[in-house]
# Entry
Amino acid sequence: MSDVSMVVNGRKVTGNVEDRTLLVQYLRENLGLTGTHVGCDTSQCGACVVHLDGKAIKSCSILAVQASGSEVTTIEGLAPDADLHPMQAAFKEHHGLQCGFCTPGMIMTAVDMVRRHPGGLDEKTVRNDLEGNICRCTGYHNIVKSVLAGAEAMSGKTETKAA
Amino acid sequence: MYQTTYHRASSLEDAAKLHAGGDDPKFVAGGMTLIPAMKTRLSAPSDLIDLRHIDGMKGIRISGQQVEIGALTTHADLAQSKELEKACHSLHYMANHVGDPLVRHLGTMGGCVANNDPAQDYPAALLALDATIITTSREMKADDFFTGLFETALEEGEIVKAVRFTAPDQCGYEKFRNPASRYAMTGVFVAKGAGGVRVAVTGAGDNGVYRETEMEEKLAANFSADALEGVTVSPSNMMSDIHASAEYRANLVVVMAKRAVAKAAGH
Ligand SMILES: Cc1cc2nc3c(=O)[nH]c(=O)nc-3n(C[C@H](O)[C@H](O)[C@H](O)COP(=O)(O)OP(=O)(O)OC[C@H]3O[C@@H](n4cnc5c(N)ncnc54)[C@H](O)[C@@H]3O)c2cc1C
Ligand code: FES
Ligand code: FES
# Structure
């Protein structure tokens, strides 16, 4: 067992966990943050994406102890107020989800994508950078649309209504 | 995953000491190979020694034609480096095509080097670039370092600190991605420099990364894709699995090599 301490969604948390506990297990089972999903055993689906010190990573492929001392943002922490984050709003408006299982990971990856491409996004870049996120429902088309719209909204160019 | 005991090393000396004290210890860097392997119980180290917080092992240093990359440098660091793109555009391209952006944020150069997965990208680059692997106890040429499938010359407890190479005059990398995992089903790196032409193949050979010497000779005489016209690769030393037969891989080696040369020539 090891002590872990990290800042999750702006809140300092501490705990004592088995060393083999994955970060995603710690988030879901110890902290009750079940927005982060587990969709595979092979590190391929991206349903588990969170931000670790500001960068998108797969929380199923890192131990909680490895992440100790870091800052973690999960889907729950993206928009701390009642309003949706512009990327969440864009997914809602552009029908970027069907069952919704992949959506938290998609959105966390999308927000990171915007950070990594300060010059803006185009469709090719979005499709390329969604490499690590799998969706079984939508066929990606509306996800790509949502990411592009969300990116624009984040840059302040257009208003995406959360309605 | 089986039980394991985690240790965070503060220095290389600390890491060596922790390693010596473990029953069946393993180092972990980005964890992008090791943690998935532990999850499926393919790997079960008694102790995990985390190298990620050791100072001074991260970063890209370029002076003149000499390029040195610290072992803890992530794929994302390489993929974002304009300096690396200038010095060796194919290694930069490669870093941008390892797995996905999420894997690239954690996975490291050192982890790839130490792991020598036959489907991994960097071993091909390092072998073609005639790179030197710098460890805690010595320096080795890539030719001597990569010894077989998942095998390297690393001894117990030896840590990769950095890799170093001379920027090539021309280079190209082409990989045929496994459609599911994105690892190289066959990848070919060609490099032309002061020492001649080197062609390294990953993802295909049944003994891991290797050099195509016949292609090297042909390309030394004429550095163009035409020089590889008619060259064939024997399937007898190729891997064969559910993704691709040995014959298919043998053919891919030639196709990828031609494309890599065309890329190098066109850059
Ligand atoms: C979904 C997915 C897709 C991927 N796709 C690709 C791909 O297309 N191409 C590709 O090349 N790779 C791919 N990878 C692997 C990825 O590149 C890993 O980052 C890399 O294999 C290992 O680096 P790491 O830092 O994560 O190593 P770790 O997993 O931490 O370690 C791997 C091994 O190396 C040892 N080790 C690590 N660092 C050192 C060191 N400095 N000295 C000595 N030993 C050390 C460890 O003990 C362990 O045995 C993929 C991984 C995933 C999860
Ligand atoms: S749960 Fe599938 S990548 Fe993490
Ligand atoms: S919406 Fe169902 S998996 Fe993507």
Remarks:
- Chain A touches chain B through 30 residues (CB under 8 Å).
